[in-house]
Amino acid sequence: MKAKASIRIKMSSNEHLLSLLKALGPELKKSGSRSKVKLDRDISVVVLSVEAKDTIALRATLNTYLRWICSTIEVLEVITKRKSFKHDL
User: Fold this and answer.
1) In this structure, is the dihedral angle defined by the CA atoms of residues 70, 76, 82 and 85, taken in order, positive or negative?
2) Distance between terminal CA atoms of the chain?
3) DSSP helix/strand/coil, 22
4) pLDDT (tens digit per residue) in 20-50
């Protein structure tokens, strides 16, 4: 592998962190021929580590996983707001 990147994302709660790891778990099991991906946790932080054969594969893999992470976080925030709203009623 020639290109590497590691991104740390602080999560708002441990529950959201675990939900994110569970949501992306199936994707991590699929091994690509041009890149390898790891998702780890460090207390309240998700660590996305990507190793790729070239910078093009690195960029494509990062973009894909970052979009999935952003989408998952947005959904978790909506769910949290709705739970809070229902609780206030």
Assistant:
1) negative
2) 54
3) helix
4) 999 999 998 887 789 999 999 999 999 999 9
